[in-house]
Structure formats: structure tokens, C-alpha cells
Amino acid sequence: MADIQVDVTYTGKDEEIAIISARGFIDTTTAPDLEKRLEEQLALNKYRIIVNLENIDYVSSAGWGVFVSEIREIRENNGDLVLVNMSSDVFDVYELMEFSSILKSFESIEDAILSLSGKGGQKESRGPVKPQVTARETAKGPTSAPQSAPEIKKEPSPSPEAGKPEAETDSAASSDLGKRIITVIVDNPYYDLKEIIKALKEPQYGGLRVGGGAVKKELKEMDLLDRQKRFELAIKNKK
User: How far apart are CA 221 and CA 173, in angstroms?
Assistant: First the structure.
């Protein structure tokens, strides 16, 4: 995979909105670079963040994990992180993996700016974003910016190292398997059932060889069968 290039610009009143634009691929080797730039913005108390994926052709599980890892802190500070300009391939994964239930997305930077500024723009709820697909397929020309869109200014970014607290497991797990499953979820909130089973075989998660039925039973008992609830658990423990 190619290296990633990440730039940050600021816009809005008092430049309170950070626009993170990436170019290349977001995989296990480049995700830390993107995560570092995101943490820099939080260190600057920038809690309204737009991630521009216009020049990103691929986002791995590690990349999606970066986007959801700081959501709790961002939203507790009256902010949000939204995605814009996803390619059709990236958007398909976004919907397939149900990231639309966690992260809002917009067709353009201008729509995202208006939304984060509290001025409306295209509404995007935590649900399927079918209208976006239609708009992408039918739009042939470049999107024109609304007249009310603020001027975007380029600013240098400092690079403080933001520390991360160690994640805690949920005390609701009554069995050893349940606790190990929760550890996997906290570390990998984007994993589906098959990936959780595979992760449990790794030494750091106990090296367990368990069947899908046993894992599914534990998830059901902990009320974690739903992907949204697993995300919420992981986000809670990212604090």
C-alpha cells in the first residue's frame, strides 16, 4: 500500500472546524498517521472535524477504527466527526459494515460545514444513506459551493503526542470467554462475529479455539449481538 498524505485546514467562525484531507490508502500501516493528526486536533480543542476522503481509494478495518475511536470524547464536547466525498467503493463498505449508524456522512465539504455550524445543510441521520448513492450516480458535474459556505484557511498543525488510557473490560461479562470477547470488541470495535472468533485464537486474547455458536451465545447473554451496541461498548471504554 502507498504512503498516506494528510493535510489539515480550518474554517468556520473562529476556525473551530478542522478539515482533515487524506490522500492514498488507509490501512494498518498508514492508519497511525491519520490517528496522530486526529489526536492533534483534539489536543487543540477542535471538536468539529470533517474527514475528506475524496482522494482515498481504500479504507481497512484499522482505518475505520480510527474514525470511531474518539467519537465519545468528541461528542461529549458538543462536537462531531463526519465523513465527506467517499468513493463508491469506500461508501459501499461504510454501509455494509453499518458505520452509518455511528458516523454521519455528506456529499460535500460545504454541506458538512453548514451542518457542523448549525446552519442546516444536508441532514444525515444515523441510518442508511441511500439518497447519497443516488446523488453520486446522477451528478455529472462538480458540486458548486453554496454562497454561505465560509472561507477555508490553511493553517500549520502542531504535533503533540496525545496519550491514550488503557481500555477497561465490562464487568457484565460473567465468564472467562465473555471477558475475552469484550477485550476483543474494545480493541476492535469494527469486528464482526467471524473476525471476533478469529481474534480469540490469537495469544493476546487467550489463544482460544471456540465455535461460532459459543461466541454468539456469549454475545447474546451480554446483549452485544447488535453491532451498534458493540460500538457503544468500545467507545465507552476508549475514554
Answer: 9
The CATH number of residue 109's host domain is 3.30.750.24
Residue 45: domain span:
5-154
Q: Provide CB contacts within 8 A for 231, sequence distance 6+.
A: 68, 101, 102, 189
Closest residue by Cα to residue 88 from 104, 107, 68? 107
Specify the pTM.
0.58
Could you give the number of structural domains in the chain? Answer: 2
CA distances 134 to 127, 130, 165, 239, Å, are: 16, 7, 41, 37
CB neighbour burial string for 52-87, b if at least 16 within 10 angstroms, e if fewer: bbeebebbbbbbbbbbbbbbbebeeeebbbbbbbbb
Residues 127 and 20 in one domain: yes
Summarised one tens digit per residue, pLDDT across range 121-174 is 455 533 333 334 333 343 444 444 444 444 544 444 443 333 333 344 444 567
Same domain flag for 60 and 112: yes
What single-letter amino acid sits at 69? S
- Category of 15 on φ-ψ map: left (φ > 0), alpha (ψ -120 to 50) or beta: left
Is the same domain home to 118 and 206?
no
